Amino acid sequence: MCGIVGYVGDNKSLEVLLGGLKRLEYRGYDSAGVAVIGADGTMDTRKRAGKLQVLVDDLDMRPMANGATGIGHTRWATHGGPTDRNAHPHLGDDGKLALIHNGIIENFSELKNELVESGATFTSETDTEVAAILVGREYAATGDLTEALRRVVQRLEGAFTLLVMHVDQPGVVVGARRNSPLVIGLGDGENFLGSDVAAFVEFTRRAVAIGQDQIVTIRPDSVVVTDFDGNSVETDEFEIAWDASASEKGGWSSFMAKEISEEPEAVAKTILGRVHDGLVDLKELEPLGPDALTDIDRIVVIACGTAAYAGMLGKYAIEQWSRIPVDVELSHEFRYRNPILTPRTLVISISQSGETMDTLMAVKFAKESGAKVLSVCNTQGATIPRESDAVVYTHAGPEVAVASTKAFVAQVTALYLIGLELGKVRGTLSDDEIRHNVAELQAVPDKISEILTVSQAEIGQLAHWMTDTQSVLFLGRNVGYPVALEGALKLKELAYIHAEGFAAGELKHGPIALIEPGQVVFVIVPSPRDPDSLHPKVVSNIQEIRARGARVIAIAEKGDASVLPFADEVIPIPLAGSLFEPFLAVVPLHIFGMELSAAKGLDVDQPRNLAKSVTVE
Ligand code: F6R
Fold it and tell me: What mean pLDDT comes out for the span 431-446?
């Protein structure tokens, strides 16, 4: 939440900051602002409530001086509403220092009281302004911007990334981070800071991740990283694996449309290089230790939202293939309920952004409790993989639309690879069984492509007919259940309508009371080919709701004639083994959520009240 950019270099700060904020806007879009030290040595700030475009339009009408030093911010409001005054940057007492912030300063109230007593006046309702005034005063006392920020961060509680610049220090931007993201971009005669690499990938693909409780000072020709006590620290440079075009919309109507079209590639790239001779080879698990995979007696998956639904699917596959019990927990519930963890527990965290604060806190807690932590993550240089013992990266590429789509299928792919690796190492799967499942996984991308080609227009039409629908239910059994939950979440966040996902077997224990004539119900129907399939039970469930007037939209295997008499619409999906059906069943639901949002004239990529990277608890 909140996107941050900092720049020192040529006289082009505004281009860098606005370009970076555009690519970071998915992190928050309540307001945006910039501060630049112009060529004449004066500092100017401009900030506006609303999306970045409001600020851009304002700058078009009333241009501000460009310069070689600048910071920029796009906000997801926490303390104080989304107004011009609460937008960042905030200034110190004397107006000479500008500061931007991502996170929450939990002790801001007592610091504010102290500052008010000492004569400070506040112009906003934010927690951030406290930090701006404190750093401004420390700079006045020390004349050293890095030292000033260091002194202040020692006093702050909570989570923060802070960037500061001072009019008397052109060519310098200083950043600090605790539990919020910050990455350095290394240029030639210029350097960058950003909440993630998207901030500067247009200008450089050389990046350095900054660790917890560290401070970085960038100048055009130098980058210095120290800890909060001033000791220098080692840093690791990495190359950004994608270029700026990957985070552009291209010719698509929305980022989400583009990202759904990339689902086949997200699965294929996540498998790439991890299969040899038909068997899974996950070298990334080695840092867990030589016997870790045979020693563990339990797995706990922690994640939030869509990532947690991916985790639920991982549970079915990992338990089936490795016979290790798997619990799936929402990170924020897990963290605050004193869970039982032992050195034989493997905690698997799942996070597209790698920055979700709830999951980060749960990861730290799990490590402190003695468990090993493996993260599944889509973002290089992110905090969660850095805090984990090992990481399996999903290679979905940058996901910009706030609602997760391609990252979901990539997360499920990574979890299935982990399940197959565990089955191999623990001897619960034969080589033939592994090869069979690997072949199923490798066949997924083409099958998703088939759905995108065959069904997209039809689903779009369905969505157009349903713009007045007030409530949609989703039913599934077994691996169809997490898919139902995912379908419902997409509809809530994208189309702003009531939507619930249920385990179909649970229906008669209460939710069936919701069914009245015309109620739309999506049903994920398992394949009838599998002898253990729950197909007959799901067909019975369809009949039960149909008898009560529900309008049924079935997502069923191609050629499954048994659902035709009971469904109002059938969306066919290609044939696949039971565990692999979710990869296919979820795609029509992603498309439906997007199409309904678009048909209602809503913002598909930036739904209200949300932000992509949830960096507050
Ligand atoms: C829903 C969605 C969210 C995220 C959740 C976790 O479409 O995108 O529910 O899945 O906020 O985010 P990450 O994966 O970044 O930890």
Answer: 98
User: What is the rounded distance in angstroms from the CA atom of residue 315 to the CA atom of residue 32?
Assistant: 41
Taking the centre of ligand 1 as the mean of its atom positions, its distance from the CA of residue 389, in whole angstroms, is: 22
**Confidence (pTM):** 0.88
Question: Residues with beta carbon inside 6 Å of ligand 1?
Answer: 304-307, 351-353, 356, 359, 403-404, 489, 493, 614
Averaged over 139-166, what is the pLDDT?
Answer: 96
Average of per-residue pLDDT across 577-590: 97
Name the residue type at position 363.
V
Kindly report, residue by residue over 269-290, the tens digit of the pLDDT.
999 999 999 999 999 999 999 8
Nearest CA to ligand 1 atom 9: 305
* Span from the CA of 614 to the centroid of ligand 1 (angstroms): 8
- Give, using CA atoms, the residue closest to atom 5 of ligand 1: 305
C-alpha dihedral, 137 to 143 to 146 to 149, nearest 10°: -10
For the chain, the structural domain boundaries read 3-247, 255-449, 456-599
Q: Does 456-599 match 255-449 at the fold level?
A: yes
Q: What is the edge-to-edge ordering of all strands in the sheet holding 345-351?
A: 326-330, 298-303, 345-351, 372-377, 390-393
Tell me how far the alpha carbon of residue 228 lies from the centroid of ligand 1, in angstroms: 31
Among 480, 460, 462, 484, which residue's Cα sits nearest to residue 604?
460
Q: What is the structure's pLDDT at 588?
A: 98
| Contact (Cβ atoms closer than 8 angstroms) between residue 22 and residue 52 | yes
Residue 391, SS3? Answer: strand
The architecture (CATH level 2) of 255-449 comes to 3-Layer(aba) Sandwich (3.40)
At 324, is the secondary structure helix, strand, or coil?
coil
Q: What is the mean pLDDT of residues 257-275?
A: 96
Number of DSSP helices (H) and strands (E) in the chain, helices first = 17, 26
Angle at 205 between CA 203 and CA 211, to 5 degrees: 110
Distance from C-alpha of 310 to C-alpha of 200, rounded to nearest angstrom: 30
pLDDT in the model for residue 107: 94
N-terminal to C-terminal alpha carbon distance within the chain: 11
Q: How far is CA 98 from CA 6, 59, 153, 249, 564, in A?
A: 11, 18, 16, 32, 64
CB 100 within 8 A of CB 162: yes
pLDDT of 532 reads 82
On whether the CB atoms of residues 110 and 155 are closer than 8 A, the answer is no
- Looking at domain 456-599, its CATH class is alpha beta
User: Which tokens hold the place of 479?
Assistant: 């691996």
Candidates 359, 360, 404, 617: which one to mutate for ligand 1, based on the most atoms within 8 Å of Cβ? 404
Cα 178 to middle of ligand 1, angstroms: 21
Q: Mean of the per-residue pLDDT values for the chain? A: 95
Condensed to tens digits (0 to 9), the pLDDT of residues 192-251 reads 999 999 999 999 999 999 988 999 999 999 999 999 999 999 998 999 988 888 888 888
At 123, the amino acid letter reads T
- What's the rounded mean pLDDT across residues 163-176? 98
The dihedral built from the CA positions of residue 529, 532, 533 and 536, taken in this order, carries a sign that is positive
CA angle 124, 76, 237 (to 5 degrees): 110
CATH homologous superfamily, domain 3-247: Aminohydrolase, N-terminal nucleophile (Ntn) domain (3.60.20.10)
